[in-house]
Amino acid sequence: MVAALLFLLVPLRSLTVSRPAPTAAPEAPATKASAVHLRLTSTAVPLSFSVSHLGKVIWRGDASTSPVESVVEMPFSTEGVDLVVDAKWSFGQTAAVKLEVARGDDEPSAQTVWGDGAVSEVLTFK
């Protein structure tokens, strides 16, 4: 019995000894801006649109043809990016807008939103 208690002494001691709190991990460096290719396709034209990232409009325009494309400089982390798409058509019928996002040579990622005359939606791209 004494041998078993002596055998458990080291693991029990390491579990019950208080340790100082770990120091905070250093903050991750800010994500650098990179060229991001955006392509907006609409089922109906004309339309007015804007694409925002972190509250800042990164692309705005009026489209009389579809699709329209642009390359913007913006931070794009490995976890992904949230973009707000606002679109307004000149008529009140249901229409859709598709946003494709590609960084560098990556395959584009696309999402589609529908609206009646207008739409405002947050889209997440990884």
Overall description:
A four-stranded antiparallel β-sheet has the order 4-1-6-7, with no helix packed on it. Strands 3-2-5-8 form a four-stranded antiparallel β-sheet, with no helix packed on it. The longest helix has 15 residues, at 2-16. The N and C termini lie far apart (59 Å). A hairpin with a 5-residue loop joins strand 6 and strand 7. The protein has one helix and eight strands. The radius of gyration is 26 Å and the shape is elongated. With 126 residues, the chain is mainly beta.
**Multimeric status of the protein:** single chain
Secondary-structure element order, N to C:
HEEEEEEEE
How helix-rich are the residues, as a percent range? 10-25%
Q: How big a fraction of the residues is strand?
A: over 45%
Arithmetic mean of pLDDT: 88
The span between the termini is 59 Å
Helical stretch tally: 1
- 3D shape: elongated
Structural class: mainly beta
Largest sheet: 4 strands, antiparallel
Number of strands: 8
